[in-house]
Design goal:
Layout lengths: L20 E3 L1 H11 L8 H6 L7 H11 L13 H11 L7 H14 L12 E4 L2 E4 L2 E4 L2 E2 L11 E4 L5 E4 L2 E2 L2 E4 L2 H28 L5 E3 L11
Parallel strand pairs: 1-10
Antiparallel strand pairs: 2-9, 3-4, 5-8, 6-7
Length: 227
């Protein structure tokens, strides 16, 4: 049987088996955290760099590329090296795009295969503040409008069948707006913050070019899916 040997310094030409697979950043995150069960490590930079100032994610990715793995305490099968690279990059997410709290949120969403809840099809609706059920069904609860003070109506006089003046309560239905425009806006802003963090992470992984199996493409989730 013939055997091929590669001399020292000889360049190996990439083949179909060594070609990196194009992948979108969100698909890569789901693969890393959902399929490979990668874990965030916020102490990694300090432990790897010895606490030296000025050392960032680029240094960590470079060290992992040299080692071919991320140091792990054992006890379970290790994730793919690329999944560790993704987890390291996400752990070092800069503060201006959310930092650690955003990294945790992205990892949890990736494990669940979900995007942030931007409240699809939500519109402010006026609804009764409370309901009550009787033999006639479910109805809105009413209240005495005189309790509203100057904005309400006082009890109205009328003469009953016996000619006696009685005072009737003017009732109104307290309402609430659900969801509010503020709640919808907050959900949209949270989605945009998540999208911006993905954009930052995409750039980091593209510039590092240290993934062995994947090549991060420019593809991103919809920027404003509510439009």
């Amino acid at each position: 049987m013939m055997q091929m040997t590669i001399e020292a310094g000889e360049q190996v030409q990439p083949t179909a088996s060594t070609t990196r697979k194009p992948i979108a950043i969100w698909d890569l995150l789901q693969w890393a955290f959902r399929s490979e069960c990668a874990q965030l490590d916020f102490d990694e930079i300090g432990s790897e760099a010895g606490g030296r100032a000025g050392v960032g994610i680029e240094y960590i990715l470079m060290q992992q590329s040299i080692l071919g793995c991320r140091p792990d305490g054992g006890g379970s099968s290790d994730p793919h090296h690329d999944a560790d690279i993704v987890a390291s990059a996400l752990s070092a997410l800069p503060d201006h795009v959310g930092g650690r709290s955003m990294a945790i949120s992205i990892a949890e969403l990736a494990r669940a295969g979900q995007v942030p809840d931007w409240m699809p099809d939500a519109t402010p609706c006026v609804k009764p503040a409370d309901l009550h059920t009787n033999r006639y069904g479910c109805q809105a609860k009413t209240a005495d409008s005189s309790e509203l003070g100057e904005q309400g109506w006082p009890k109205q006089p009328r003469r009953n069948r016996k000619g006696v003046i009685v005072y009737d309560v003017v009732k109104y239905c307290p309402v609430v707006i659900r969801p509010t425009a503020e709640q919808i806006g907050r959900a949209h802003r949270a989605y945009l913050a998540w999208w911006g963090a993905l954009l930052e992470l995409r750039g980091t992984l593209q510039l590092s070019a240290m993934l062995s199996k994947f090549e991060v493409t420019k593809a991103m989730p919809a920027l404003e899916p509510w439009k």
